[in-house]
Design brief:
The chain is an alpha/beta fold. It contains twelve helices and eight strands. The protein has two domains: 200 residues, Spore Coat Polysaccharide Biosynthesis Protein SpsA, Chain A, CATH 3.90.550.10; 122 residues, no CATH class.
């Protein structure tokens, strides 16, 4: 029996709500030569029973080790010349693997190819669509030259992955793909994004889920960025637009407070200038909101992005600065 062209590697940790749909989508692929390896990270929710209903290769870790360790374990068992990483809450499109292989083979042996989320996720709640559009826009904004390739859709030659040592296992509970991408680039690998390589992410976000996610990712991203000395870099979802949005929103809030205390027209002009600048700097994302969900969604998403969302991101950044001041590396935290 010949080896498959692609090994799809999926880490799973208590993913009973999504892993079945994930595997259904994977096995609906129109690619003719692939295998699916699911690495269960010591789940306790019955998701292993769901995984066993599919013709995939199941690896079970005896102790909770984290997504990075699970992906590395899957890569060691892979038989394909190409590794494709995704998550247990992501749904591959039928053509995803075919496009990924074609793109990677056309880019050379040292290339790493990434994809992104569809703008419209499977669940259509406001906060889920907001998050999917947000990630799609910022992960594809830089065209073919991303700062990182995310593990929800990453294609890499198995030999390149092994040579680079895989994902860092003693690290933060997230962002191992960012660290790996930066390490790949330093070694001379070519990182590229093909926006045609898409997966649908199952968010099921409420307002609290959205704000908690923004806070958590901002906290860990700040910790990593301070250590990596690229805090102000334009890096995917940690974009300059988002960072300026946070700064300008706090500037506007400060201006409103001072105006209520001291009065005077000058502060009104400062607030207006800051808000106008923020609109102009983020016009690309705002256009994505409107083109995806129409005027009603576009207005609501824009209002959320300029009001509550930046405060969650700002609070996370402050938490990251405080945690990062205690030293690096932090004690390993498991998600």
């Amino acid at each position: 029996m010949s080896n498959p062209d692609i090994s799809v590697i999926i880490p799973n940790r208590n993913g009973s709500a999504t892993v079945g749909r994930c595997l259904e989508a994977a096995f609906a692929s129109d690619h003719e030569s692939f295998e699916v390896i699911v690495v269960d990270d010591d789940s306790a929710d019955g998701s292993v029973e769901t995984i066993r209903r599919f013709p995939c290769r199941l690896m079970e870790l005896r102790d909770h080790a984290g997504a990075a360790a699970a992906r590395n374990a899957g890569s060691r068992q892979a038989r394909g010349g190409i590794l494709f990483f995704t998550d247990s809450d992501c749904l591959l499109e039928k053509q995803t693997l075919r496009i990924a292989q074609r793109t990677l083979e056309g880019a050379g042996s040292d290339a790493v190819i990434g994809g992104t989320y569809t703008r419209e996720p499977p669940d259509t709640s406001f906060y889920s669509v907001f998050q999917s559009v947000f990630i799609n826009y910022f992960e594809t904004k830089s065209g073919g030259a991303p700062d990182y390739v995310a593990t929800h859709a990453m294609a890499i030659h198995a030999a390149t992955f092994a040579r680079q040592g895989g994902f860092p296992e003693h690290f933060l509970p997230i962002l191992e793909d960012v660290e790996f991408s930066h390490r790949l680039r330093r070694s001379g690998c070519d990182l590229r994004i093909n926006p045609e390589i898409v997966v649908r992410h199952i968010f099921n976000y409420s307002l609290s889920d959205s704000l908690k996610n923004a806070w958590r990712k901002s906290m860990y991203w700040t910790m990593y960025s301070v250590r990596n000395r690229d805090l102000l870099a334009d890096s995917g979802t940690a974009s300059r637009e988002l960072k300026l949005n946070v700064a300008l929103c706090f500037l506007c809030l400060t201006g409103l407070f001072l105006r209520s205390v001291a009065g005077g027209p000058f502060l009104s002009y400062v607030i207006l200038a800051a808000f106008t600048s923020n609109l102009l700097l983020n016009r690309g994302l705002l256009g994505a909101f409107f083109s995806t969900g129409g005027a009603r969604f576009g207005l609501a998403a824009s209002a959320y992005y300029f009001s509550l969302y930046p405060f969650a991101v700002g609070a996370g950044a402050l938490s990251g600065l405080l945690k990062g001041s205690r030293g690096w590396p932090p004690e390993q935290e498991r998600p």
